[in-house]
Amino acid sequence: MATRSSKRSKRGAVAAAAVVAASPPTASLVLKVVTNPESEFFKDEGGKSNHLTCTILLAKGSAAPAAMGDEKYVVGVKLYFESGVEVTDASECLSVHGNPFEKRTISLLSPSYTVSFRLEKVSRRKDGQRFKLRFTLQDSEGAAIDGVEPVDSGCVNVLSKRKPAARRGKDGSSSGRKQAS
User: Fold this and answer.
1) What is the pLDDT of residues 139-149, one digit of tens each?
2) Which of 42, 77, 121, 170 lies 20 to 30 Å from 62 when distance is taken between CA atoms?
3) Vertex 68 angle, CA 31 and 74, to 5°
């Protein structure tokens, strides 16, 4: 019969093995999210100029050679639900600001890239799911760069507009109809 301490050590060894197995392989390039978008976005406030921003950073990984060239990479942006499922009608939901004919590029000499975007569909219409962006590193042909893991932004809950304070009572409850006296 195993004692409590031996059970703990077995569990600890299994947990440590799971961490080692889950850690990504060493890469020469790494993408990181530096600035996440706001967690709530009111799409009907501020007109079409109202948008969210997210900043990513390209850095050398642990397997990077000492001297790397100034190769430019294309930043791929896709829309996902917070559950990790890709949004099928992303062209209707996601509007990325900027010149659509100009590729979004990043390199080690200019390692930061900020994307400005709008989410056009309300989370409530998508079963209340929040949205997130997934950034990938691609070559000039659009193929993913091997060994560079994609990175996800923080999740955004898209709402239509803020609820006006006039609808709520002074105590914070819904006032609804007038009470008969």
Assistant:
1) 888 888 888 89
2) 77
3) 45
Q: How far apart (Å, rounded) are the C-alpha atoms in residues 156 and 167?
A: 25
Residue 150: its pLDDT value, please? 94
Q: In 3-state terms, the chain is what percent helix, strand and coil (to 5)?
A: 20, 35, 50
DSSP sequence for 131-166: EEEEEEEE-TTSPBPTT---EE---BEEESSPPPGG
- Identity of the amino acid at 86: E
Sheet containing strand 94-96, strands side by side: 29-35, 52-60, 112-119, 94-96
The pTM (predicted TM-score) of the whole model is 0.72
